[in-house]
Design goal:
Rossmann fold, five-stranded parallel beta sheet, alpha/beta, single chain
Length: 214
């Protein structure tokens, strides 16, 4: 098995990263793809009370167990399957269960800081930043957190202005400079997504040709 192509997809909260990742996977159904989401690697906070966990800045690089994420990403690159953590946003806790992820021809790594954290960025072959207007992102974030994560309007707005927005300006937005491809307008930019799919397919085909000559 060739070393897999590793694609990083970064961008602000609710920018459309997951949508872009999903559409890439849909258009590469003939390829074997593994998906690693940075959200699964929030640090284990089981030693804190629920109230204390709510005060944690989940948008700072230190909120993530980057060492575990990089270790498991390297395992996949070496052809070794992993047990990916499962994280509960409603409880702000890592679950006891894990999700088995097998090695694949391509690995998509998605999360707000996959370009902003040096140790993760070094593992990437293709770097993508999904861009979207701030007002669009905050509306999407409000809708998602209230409907899917059991938050109320007031706490969601407070969190946005207390940590989400400042961390976006400090860490997420500056990481755009590392991107090979910028996808404007989130997950609805068909042309940009087609470009990304073509780039991934070309790299996979080149790797396959190289293996055939070996």
């Amino acid at each position: 098995m060739n070393r897999p192509i590793v694609v990083g997809i970064a961008g602000g909260t609710a920018s459309g990263k997951s949508t872009v990742a999903r559409k890439i996977c849909e258009r590469l159904q003939d390829c074997r793809i593994a998906l690693i989401d940075q959200d699964s690697y929030y640090r284990d906070l089981s030693d804190l009370t629920y109230e204390e966990r709510l005060e944690v800045n989940f948008d700072h690089p230190e909120a993530f167990d980057t060492e575990l994420m990089v270790s498991q990403l390297r395992q996949l690159k070496q052809g070794i399957g992993i047990e990916k953590p499962i994280y509960s946003f409603k409880e702000c806790l890592r679950q006891k269960e894990t999700l088995r992820v097998e090695p694949r021809d391509a690995i998509i790594v998605e999360g707000i800081l996959v370009l902003g954290i040096d140790a993760i960025r070094k593992e990437l072959d293709i770097k993508i930043f999904v861009d979207a207007d701030g007002d669009v992102r905050i509306v999407r974030r409000l809708t998602r957190d209230i409907k899917e994560r059991g938050r109320d309007f007031e706490s969601t707005v407070t969190q946005y202005f207390k940590s989400v927005r400042p961390m976006h300006l400090a860490f997420v937005e500056p990481s755009k400079r590392w991107a090979d491809i910028i996808v404007p307008h989130g997950g609805h930019n068909v042309i940009a997504i087609d470009m990304v799919v073509d780039a991934i397919r070309q790299k996979l085909q080149a790797a396959s040709r190289a293996e055939g000559k070996a």
